[in-house]
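User: Hey, quick favor. My workstation is busy. Could you predict this chain's structure for me?
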Amino acid sequence: MKRPLAWLLPLTTCLLCAGQLNAQIRFGGKVGVNYLIGSQKIQPDPKNAPTNAKGLGLSFAAYTEIPFSDLVGLRPDLGFSFRKGKSETTVNQTLTNNTDVTGGQGAYTGSQDYSAQNDQRLSYFQVNVPLMLKPTDGLRIMVGPSFNFLMGGKQNLDETTTFKGNITGTDQNGQQVTQAVDQQNFETTKRKGSAAIKDFKKADIMVMAGLGYTLPVGFDMDMRFYRSLSTTYDHSEGTARTQIWTNLIEFAVGWTFGG
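Assistant: No problem, here it is.
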């Protein structure tokens, strides 16, 4: 009789602890906005570099809180992150006796201004596994890894070229004539699917840190910062190479159930 009783006591203890832990596990959902800030590196350093990509996006996720004690726990979540990054390139040139602009119609003297606006959209499936520290009731500090898997995207590129100056050439009688030019050319390019994301890494591992607060009724607020551990974008053309790391600020509100 002693042996069955010896096994019964630790088994009962484990079941009670499991039941207590299960009662403390909480679930919830959240929706929020994110702001992307790209950190770019271009080699060799160009004279007219594009601006760092920036833009406002959306996110939503489902999460669970798994406490190990009153102070420490995990707060993993699964969700989707829709990001936008806009950048602009501007090139201003002064041309003298240039024939490439006119296509052989004469010599062009004046200015050529080029601007390109790139609007990049990216969709990620996001898995976060932060360690949660709770110094006081309701307040939490989070730090941990974030795994982001690229699902798709699209790109819109608007290019504008403006010519202002004079074209000097000869007419049918062989006499030299000068004609004033004020011309603007606009071109837009739209890409989607693999063509829009071919230079982006399919998996982006990030480190995340943040603060959050849950009210007693369950209303939840969450502020996080993400930073890529490796390049998000890597493109080489000739001797030039462009690399971009992602910085992401995210704010979300949600509702926590249970506990």
